[in-house]
Amino acid sequence: MSGVTESEVTSKKNPGSPEAGGPEKPVKPSFKQKLKVWFVPIIVVTLQRLWGLTWRRINIGRQSFEEIRKEGKAWIYGIWHTNVFFSPYLNRGLKVNVMISDSRDGEMITKVVKKFGNFAIRGSTSKGGMRALKNCVSALKKGQPAAITPDGPRGPAFRVQDGIIVAAMMSGRPIIPFHYEGVRQWIAEKAWDKHRIPKPFTRVVVSYGEPIYVPSRLSEEEFARQRDIVQTAMMKNMEKCQQHIAELVRK
Asked: Which of 5, 64, 69, 170 could form an SS bridge with 137, CB 3.0 to 4.6 Å?
């Protein structure tokens, strides 16, 4: 391949599309499953709102993000999967389009995201990915921000995959690394994404990285280089957040 362009990306067939043999016949959910999809999001949103009220939020590196937002331009949040649980709450009301898997759990997450004043684009890198990515790019071009977990949905953790680079390349909108951690928090050490849950009544540091613009046309080598740039920026933003917490603890 001599280069990566928008036409090459959008022309690839989705494995679940009719052209690739047609989607699998959906399984009708049971009443219990329907009740779960309806009830769980209500509980999650209520608990997150109450939980978040006990926090003291500290923003760092937010200036560039605010400049883009005040200009009415769209952006792409790059959020590690370790941060997916409270990110909708911490970005409530921003009308961000969040890429969410087509799974049944994804349906519950969609309801949570919407209750916090954001939107959902269904599909992931493993299922419905190309359709979701095209919808994401379309929203970005209309001025609507997006959020992508570059290491989701199944990892490896803290490794940027191609989707977020393609979205930035096709939309012309910048990637902004986003990361949060609590001064006191639980970390799911056995989980593949080392999920983080800040404890109640703690300080929560929310760190924003500098915007990263990706050229609209790239060679294969340049594409890999851009992925490395985003990888480095995402890791540095996480480290910046952790360093700030270490300074708060020392005081």
From this structure: 170
Q: Residue 38's domain is classified under what CATH number?
A: 3.40.1130
What parts of the chain have a pLDDT lower than 50? 1-2, 10-20
Whether 49 is covered by a domain: the verdict is yes
CB 245 within 8 A of CB 205: yes
Spatial contact of 146 and 139, defined as CB atoms under 8 Å apart: yes
Residue count of the chain: 251
For 140-177, b/e burial (b = at least 16 CB within 10 A) is beeebbbbbbbbbbeeeebebbbbbbbbbbbbebbbbb
What six digits make up the tokens of 90? Answer: 């911490």
Residue pair 202/246 in contact by the 8 Å Cβ criterion: no
What pLDDT does residue 13 have? 45
Q: pTM for the complete prediction? A: 0.85
